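tokens incoming
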């Protein structure tokens, strides 16, 4: 929604710094012919450093100063904690097949002993006493009724997972037994008392706590819960999210044409939000219509509304005016981060928030990870990822004052910064494993940087896109 001529010169310079960092410095082969891409890096100074609303002198006059990046994340987390207290959402009883990615709201206590009966660990024979043994005609299979007890010197064919007959002293594996000339079973190696019998309760006793409250339900937890007798799990409900995509210039199909571009955020955000623990209820494209935005915001019953675009100060940037019209409290109004500095977080109600993502697609990713991730994680009661650092293989230019988030791939013990990391580009992030947090001033080759993993690289449960 940034229309031509609406950017202050200094902001144009600022954007050029981003583009130039992406293309001139880090990309050896920039495409030609685009003046934005070939502009020389310019210096942003604190004076005239454009405010979050875009006016160059805004920051000097405005009570809304951009928030430092770590503080913005902490504010989002705090806001979510306050919303959790206000909303008192009751835990859900969720069928196992809908519980992946949720957080346990009650401990997972075993509903049975595991194993729940003495069971054979191997295919072979259950034997009683020392061999040779007389083998019964009827074998014992898994899932069948309780077999008759063995008598000393007797053996019975048994399958892995089948119930051990009473008075069995060991299980002899198929490959360790042979039938002698008299039709009796002989062991071909020593038999140790109790071998290959899994005793009832070996893993847990009924009532034992298997997993505490706060556990993320992974595929393994689902398996454990099923094994322990559960049909449903008591879990924290997913935070409900409505996505509002702003911008008259957006096409939903076909190739960009006539000054129109494809909506990159409509397809990208819902699965990403799901991976962050959200239930995405609606994705609405509402153009550059302040009334429609107002209606959508006031009608939403979501825990979090995510808007895209319209955060700056262009003539059709309606997010701030609508927030002020609905009496929202701006908790974060601009963040000292590149890309994405116009991102915002507002409290609409005690238990309802709005994250305004900038329209530039990588700037939207930055807002997603800076504000939406901590907010959703806290609402979903998910554990915070362990912070970690890795050395950056190459030097990364920094912004003079702001943190930069730069797409990287992880290679060996380090991270390699990627090209095409300008605010309007997705080519870098599409190839990335993580975002490197580059402090103001930049970092030299080999310098450690904090990394934010992307959901598809952390694997396992982080990948819950559907
Ligand atoms: N005068 C100023 N102008 C701008 C400033 C500023 O501080 N002062 N900040 C710039 C920065 S940085 C960003 S980021 C953008 C943020 O602008 P908005 O959030 O208002 O976003 P729009 O203007 O609506 O769009 C920006 C850009 O992104 C494209 N876009 C929007 N939505 C999508 C989408 N769903 N898929 C793909 N691309 C999208 C849009 O067409 C624009 O090109 O403002 C700068 N301007
Ligand atoms: O530099 Mo903006 O913040 O494109 O994202």
């Amino acid at each position: 929604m940034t229309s031509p001529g609406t950017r202050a010169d200094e902001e144009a310079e600022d954007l050029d710094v981003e583009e130039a960092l992406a293309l001139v410095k880090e990309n050896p082969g920039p495409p030609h012919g685009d003046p934005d891409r070939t502009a020389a890096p310019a210096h942003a100074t604190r004076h005239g450093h454009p405010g979050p609303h875009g006016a160059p002198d805004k920051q000097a006059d405005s009570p809304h100063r951009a928030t430092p990046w770590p503080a913005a994340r902490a504010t989002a987390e705090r806001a979510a904690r306050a919303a959790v207290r206000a909303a008192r959402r009751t835990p859900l009883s969720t069928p196992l097949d809908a519980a992946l990615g949720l957080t346990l709201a009650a401990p997972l206590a075993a509903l049975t002993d595991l194993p729940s009966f003495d069971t054979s660990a191997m295919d072979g024979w259950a034997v009683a006493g020392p061999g040779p043994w007389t083998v019964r005609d009827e074998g014992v299979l898994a899932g069948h009724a309780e077999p008759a007890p063995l008598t000393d010197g007797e053996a019975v064919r048994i399958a892995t997972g089948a119930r051990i007959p009473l008075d069995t002293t060991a299980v002899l594996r198929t490959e360790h037994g042979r039938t002698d000339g008299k039709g009796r079973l002989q062991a071909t190696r020593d038999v140790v008392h109790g071998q290959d019998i899994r005793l009832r309760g070996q893993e847990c006793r009924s009532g034992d706590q298997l997993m505490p409250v706060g556990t993320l339900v992974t595929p393994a937890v689902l398996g454990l819960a099923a094994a322990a007798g559960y049909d449903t799990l008591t879990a924290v409900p997913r935070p409900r999210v409505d996505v509002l995509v702003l911008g008259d210039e957006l096409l939903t199909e076909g190739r960009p044409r006539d000054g129109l571009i494809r909506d990159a955020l409509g397809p990208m955000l819902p699965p990403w939000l799901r991976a962050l623990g959200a239930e995405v209820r609606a994705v609405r494209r509402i153009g550059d219509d302040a009334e429609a935005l107002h209606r959508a915001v006031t009608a939403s019953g979501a825990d979090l509304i995510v808007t895209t675009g319209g955060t700056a100060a262009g003539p059709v940037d309606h997010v701030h005016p609508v927030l002020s019209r609905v009496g929202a409290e701006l908790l974060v109004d601009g963040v000292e981060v590149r890309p994405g500095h116009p991102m915002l977080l507002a409290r609409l109600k005690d238990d309802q928030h709005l994250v305004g993502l900038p329209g530039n697609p990588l700037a939207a990713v930055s807002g997603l990870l800076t504000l939406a991730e901590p907010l959703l994680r806290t609402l979903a009661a998910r554990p915070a990822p362990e912070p970690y650092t890795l050395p950056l293989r190459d030097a990364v230019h920094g912004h003079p004052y702001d943190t930069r988030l730069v797409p990287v791939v992880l290679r060996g013990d380090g991270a390699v910064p990627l090209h095409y990391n300008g605010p309007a580009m997705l080519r870098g992030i599409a190839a990335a494993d993580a975002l490197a947090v580059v402090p103001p001033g930049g970092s030299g080759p080999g310098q450690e940087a904090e990394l934010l993993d992307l959901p598809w690289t952390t694997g396992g449960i982080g990948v819950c896109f559907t």
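note: Confidence is low (pLDDT under 50) at residues 1-63.
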